[in-house]
Amino acid sequence: MTAEIQASRHNATLILTLSNPGAKNALHPDMFAAAIEVLSTAERDDSIRAVVLTGADDFFCAGGNLNRLLEHRKMDPLKQTEGVDLLRGWIEAIRDCPKPVIAAVEGAAAGAGFSLALACDLIVAGKTSRFAMSYVKVGLTPDGGGSWFLSQALPRQLATELMIEGKPIAAERLHNLGLINRLVADGSTLTNALEWADELAGLPDNAMDRIKLLVREAADNSLSRHFEAERRHFVEALNHPHAEEGIHAFLEKRTPHYK
Predict the structure, then answer these.
(1) How far apart are CA 167 and CA 131, in angstroms?
(2) How crowded is residue 259: how many other Cβ atoms within 10 Å of its Cβ?
(3) What is the 8-class DSSP label of residue 61?
(4) Do residues 168 and 206 lie in contact, with contact meaning Cβ atoms separated by under 8 Å?
(5) 133 to each of 79, 102, 113, 187, how far by Cα in Å?
(6) What angle do CA 52, 54, 55 make, to 5 degrees?
(7) Rounded to whole angstroms, how far apart are CA atoms 40 and 33?
(8) What is the per-residue DSSP string for 129-193?
(9) How many CA atoms lie within 13 A of 207 on its CB side?
């Protein structure tokens, strides 16, 4: 069976499905390149207002393929870095996408699968789903930005615990910590994510894109620099047609219609 990214549409939402039958949707470099290409196309397609990332067969992603990694140990170190860099490209494509990206997690998100979920703007997870930064269990260290995302989102001690022990953590605990946005019944994450995406599709994409940028840049900005970024985005947004429509609609007590 082939590891692939399946792309489909639901209203104004692009659905990307991780599919690797029989391997719990383990990742393959071919998936990385395909996902980057699809996200690049979505970025230019005004009819797409949101992206949902999910896994086939009620399972999000088991991470990397360990048999493939064993083969990589025989290669030159420069060759070994190619897969890591491709995953980085996919993570950056998710972060750079101007449309909101929602992870719909069933079953488990482990290793690089956890990193993929963390890269998304929003996470919807099944109540019994589990997350694991399990690299240490096989003598490896995180990739895909997993260590950065966890260090930004969680207290240092908890982030260290998750990575240094590699044990799974329940979705409910991550939800209580604020890392997961919505905890829903098992089997309903995709439906819930698509409903959320439909709601976001009615909001001004110009403002959402700028908010994504502000959130992404905040971790590296001093407060002074961030004030400057906020000022720039605010003035640019104020002069965009979406602000004119939104303000008029609010004052006129009607539903805004963004084009």
Answers:
(1) 9
(2) 7
(3) B
(4) no
(5) 24, 20, 9, 23
(6) 160
(7) 11
(8) -EEE-GGGGGT----TTHHHHHHHHS-HHHHHHHHHH---EEHHHHHHTTSSSEEE-TT-HHHHH
(9) 17
Cβ neighbours, 10 Å, residue 78: 7
- Tell me the C-alpha distance between 168 and 44, whole Å: 37
Per-residue model confidence as pLDDT tens for the chain (259 residues): 688 999 999 999 999 999 999 999 999 888 999 999 999 999 999 999 999 999 999 999 999 887 877 777 777 777 778 878 999 999 999 999 999 999 999 999 999 999 999 999 999 999 999 999 999 999 999 999 999 999 999 999 999 999 999 999 999 999 999 999 999 999 999 999 999 999 999 999 999 999 999 999 998 899 999 999 999 999 999 999 999 999 999 999 999 988 8
Residue-level length of the chain: 259
Q: Cα–chain-centroid distance for residue 233?
A: 23
Q: Is 9 helix (H, G, I), strand (E, B) or coil?
A: strand
- Alpha-carbon span 233 to 193, nearest angstrom: 28
